[in-house]
Amino acid sequence: MGSLFRGEPMCLAQLFLQSGSAYECLSEVGERGLAEFRDLNPNVSVFQRKFVNEVKKCEEMERILGYLVQEIKKADIPLPEGDVAPPAPLLKHILEIQEQLQKLETELREVTKNKEKLRKNLLELTEYTCMLEVTQRFVRRTYESHLHANYEEFPSVENEPLVDYNCMHRLGAKLGFISGLVHIAKVEAFEKMLWRVCKGYTILTYAELDECLEDPDTGETTKWFVFLVSYWGEQIGQKVKKICDCYHCHVYPYPNNMEERKAVVEGLNVRIQDLHTVLHKTEDYLRQVLCKASESIYTWVIQVKKMKAIYHVLNLCSFDVTNKCLIAEVWCPVADLQNLRHALEEGSRKSGATISSFMNTIPTTQPPPTLIRTNKFTSGFQNIVDAYGVGNYGEVNPALYTIITFPFLFAVMFGDFGHGLLMFIFALLTILYENHPRLQRSQDEIMKMLFEGRYVILLMGLFSVYTGLIYNDCFSKSLNIFGSGWNVSAMFEQKDLKSNKFLTLDPNVTGVYNGAYPFGIDPIWNLASNRLSFLNSFKMKMSVIFGVTHMTFGVVLGVFNHLHFKKKYNIYLVFLPELLFMMCIFGYLVFMIFFKWLAYSAEDSTSAPSILIQFINMFLFPGGETEVFYTGQVALQRFLLSIAFLSVPVMLFGKPLYLYWLHSGGRGIRIGYKLIRKESEEELSLLRCHDVEEGSSHSDTGIELTVFLVAGTVLCFE
């Protein structure tokens, strides 16, 4: 209970590790999670430390593992994960793991490179085949136009078809053709550029491919256009080629005649079939390599991370004068000192060292780190508290009380039976299946957050069910479980229902009010026109009561810190003024709420003063006669307000003045002129050292201040 209330008692220990067994010893300590290491080389840069080369090797293995994981995921191969994390490898096995990873990376990169080369060749051959099929349609369409019309696309060609180009040499002008594929988004710009640059000495024919092909640059499937450019002259041809290069067109050679076209198509089909066979075998072999690597990838990743962590910790250690022994300083829980000794002995045994590593506890004046042990139930609440800040060593741990206060205050705000029940069922299912691998290894951030806070959600839902019953609210609807305590028929004789739009239920009429609803708010309020104002008033008063109680409880917890650190002056100068200030103002407000509930009934409720007006008048001191709850109320309020105002200067200046008096040697404080010298910073540091010796606590509500009196004016420095 003491460790849960304040955290684990800690001590500073010094480890003496033999150079040959330091790795195995730290591996055992790390597996058991027994210590927090201190950096004994704060002035040495990261690149000048002893084990920087080993850390670089681990980073290189992490890079290889990242590449392997990427390739395995790309191949849609599941990554197996073990239930138990493997330990760090022994020092003699590290070189073997490094060689395996390098060999696997080399083989995988070579196979992947060959596969990509084959896929690229296959894509080029496929594009070439599609281009020949589409351009064949161009030729047939041109030939049919020569048979059925007098129009000639090339006047000097007489009636010969475009498919035979040798006849063009009779004119002394060389006719050339360039064919290929262009991206669908570049067709219009490509056509305009050809027209402007070549000045009409080209004829462009293009058509869209029926199927989508892969873009070799992006790897995405997209639409392509097949084009055929006819031109005259070598100079025009050079311009066309440059334009094709500019627009990243895939240009392929165009056959001169039908026989050559047929031979090219047959050769392409044979090569495509062979490439499919080779590519299929390459992919099978690549998948086999990746499947074999996936069996060990989980173990390798965990082992390399632990290796890197061990070498990072070794860099925090310092060598003795003989360079044969490493010295480390660690913070360790007092209860785990024996386990730490066993871990060092086990590490020395695994390494085969003749001299075992050992440890000694050393005294220190430095404040230890805070360690609070948690389990799967308390970890969620502890994370909520740690999000606002981790307390100093020895302070009271508020997470123990947050287990109740946080879900309950949430339920006060939420307060719905139906929604709370859904939250409770959801959290209960996650708890029942908390060992399921999909829940434990989920990569979704929202799901991970909900799973880690499943016990918080469980209590939030359970308390919401309770407050929902108090509010009589289930999915924003009231439930009439026990029957209403109000009787409407008794009002028929008192009111004329035909002349009144609303029926006011008067509890003073006999038979109208038969008693309180057994649990929660009466369901008849759901039908009332003043339902919202009544419920808001009820919830507001209840929230004020819970809020003041919660804040007062937090202030009272500070007393345990003051007593633990033996700083009793904080009780008189911090705790009591805070408590008096809160009780004289907000505590009195809670008192008026309960007094009005108890002192006034339904018979005289119309004459009851307003709590809000009474609270405002407490600060304004209105003249004349005002409505009061009881005799002597004004005098009591002025007395409480005077105590609250007197508590303010004590909270602000009481502790600083006392520390200044303590620092001055108890000689008292002399009001007058005092020069602030350059040595005042040293005085401030001395004061802080004295405060550390007395014990430090950040849970004090007041601010630590050092006070200098200059000409009767108080100057405060944080």
TrEMBL record:
Coiled coil segments of this chain: 94-128
Keywords of this entry: Coiled coil, Hydrogen ion transport, Ion transport, Membrane, Transmembrane, Transmembrane helix, Transport
Membrane topology, as annotated: Multi-pass membrane protein
GO BP, one annotated term: vacuolar acidification
GO cellular component, as recorded: plasma membrane; vacuolar proton-transporting V-type ATPase, V0 domain
Function: Essential component of the vacuolar proton pump (V-ATPase), a multimeric enzyme that catalyzes the translocation of protons across the membranes. Required for assembly and activity of the V-ATPase.
Annotated protein name in UniProt: V-type proton ATPase subunit a
